[in-house]
Write a structure and sequence with these properties.
alpha+beta; Cytochrome p450; two-stranded antiparallel sheet; 11 strands; single chain; about 450 residues
Length: about 450
């Protein structure tokens, strides 16, 4: 027996386990600090969610092994099982050979030439959005970033401009869905989902409405492009795809599932990252001025062209630092489908594994002074400890297919804002982190935008 009385081959149990609940309370009330604290108890630590044991990997080398080297021995885990039943079998939730086939199908929508077109579109939409901001009026930044990211995804990937009523339905449904599916995954019994309580009714209605409005948008776009030659937009790729074995077109429900997956992933993560970035720049005025000068040297009006993007080096460093310190996807999971062994801990098939990119990105072993917002650390990467881990978009075969799209979009939007506006805090309210949904969102002071 080890000093903590844990049998050999078994992960130590995290302290604070409660009868019945296990470690559910700290995971719900202070999730990121709780997951960060587990590194003090070993590279593999066992927590319990109700009756379910889950192994948390706190060591970056083990996380890399899980995502890359052992990718074929894992699947996504019980949270994604729940999401699949609610949101369909799109890229966000699908597994195995089907996931790989769908990933290959949508990949051309993210090739270089397509990304260049998206950059021009994002610049146009961002400039129009910034022009609508009312100077001097305190306002929350997150809704503005969400609306802009939503419009860029819909117009770039689906080649459509939904009606205002459809946008409003998406905006109402998405927050409820992203919060609700995580909560439902933590229910001790699926029977609780059937209870006619307000939270369940709201969630079920949001899922139905999201599916319905996406079906409408896909149908509208398909009708508008009927008779035209196929192109490499995401919608065209989905509508013209044929099954490799049967030669049949993709079922409408599957087209909808893929559209929902990419709408959620392409909107929420980007919008959250941009909101964090602009909060940090409002707190660091000197850095904001430096980035504004860089942007204006590249493009005075903020409308950068694809060839300009590599010249926004310091802006890219600030985005990297935002993704490190405020990683949107604060928790990810995998389930073993073959025996795994990490640091002497045996994980049989069916064992659930969890890790927190946010906790890893804030490890002082990897990043000195990890809670300080410091884009300089990306200018001199030799100062970073090894092994270095940076996985805001995941890694391995489930790495985000739209990573290059997201990076381009964030650079273009940041340039459009900083070329035209100076952002400052409306109050001295501390910036807080809310990780109650699928992403960790900023909660804090309103921002005031002033013309430069």
């Amino acid at each position: 027996m080890r000093e903590d009385d844990t049998p050999p081959g078994t992960a130590p149990c995290a302290p604070g386990r409660l009868p019945l609940l296990g470690h559910l309370l700290p995971l719900l009330t202070r999730p990121v600090p709780f997951l960060q604290s587990l590194a003090d108890h070993g590279p593999v630590v066992r927590i319990h969610l109700w009756h379910r044991p889950v192994h948390v990997l706190t060591d970056p080398e083990l996380v890399h092994r899980l995502l890359v080297e052992d990718a074929a021995k894992t699947e996504k885990g019980f949270v994604f099982d729940k999401a699949r039943g609610l949101l369909g079998n799109g890229l966000f939730t699908s597994e195995g050979a089907f996931h790989l086939r769908q990933r290959r199908l949508v990949q051309p929508a993210f090739h270089r030439d397509s990304i260049h077109r998206y950059a021009a579109l994002a610049a146009r939409l961002a400039a129009a959005a910034v022009a609508r901001w009312e100077p001097g009026r305190p306002a929350p930044i997150e809704p503005r970033m969400y609306e802009l990211a939503r419009d860029i995804v819909l117009e770039a990937l689906f080649a459509t401009r939904p009606r205002l009523a459809q946008k409003a339905r998406i905006d109402r449904a998405v927050p409820v869905v992203l919060t609700g599916f995580v909560q439902r995954a933590l229910y001790p019994s699926p029977l609780l989902e059937k209870l006619p309580v307000p939270a369940n009714r709201r969630f079920d209605a949001a899922v139905r409405d999201l599916r319905t409005v996406v079906d409408e948008i896909v149908a509208q776009a398909a009708a508008r492009h009927q008779g035209q030659d196929p192109d490499d937009t995401l919608l065209s790729l989905l509508l013209t795809a044929r099954d490799e074995e049967t030669g049949l077109a993709m079922a409408p429900a599957q087209v909808r599932d893929e559209a929902v997956s990419l709408l959620l992933a392409g909107t929420e993560t980007t919008a959250t990252t941009l909101a964090w970035l602009f909060h940090e720049l409002a707190r660091h005025q000197d850095l904001q001025d430096e980035l504004s000068e860089e942007v204006r040297a590249v493009a005075a009006d903020g409308a950068v062209f694809p060839g300009d993007l590599p010249r926004l080096e310091r802006t890219g460093h600030a985005i990297s630092e935002t993704l490190r310190l405020h990683t949107p996807n604060w928790i990810l999971m995998r389930r073993a489908v073959a025996p795994l062994q990490y640091d002497g801990v045996l994980l049989p098939p069916g064992a659930e594994t969890l890790f927190s990119p946010t906790a890893l990105h804030r490890s002082p072993k990897l990043y000195p002074d990890p809670l300080r917002f410091d884009p300089e650390r990306w200018r001199r990467p030799g100062n970073l400890a090894r092994p270095r881990l940076f996985i805001p978009f995941g890694a391995g075969r489930h790495k985000c297919v739209g990573e290059s799209f997201a990076w381009t979009e964030m650079l273009v939007v940041t340039a459009a804002v900083l070329a035209r506006l100076r952002l400052r805090l409306a109050t001295a309210t501390p910036l807080r982190e809310s990780a109650t949904a699928a992403t960790a969102r900023p909660r804090g002071p309103l921002l005031i935008a002033e013309p430069r």
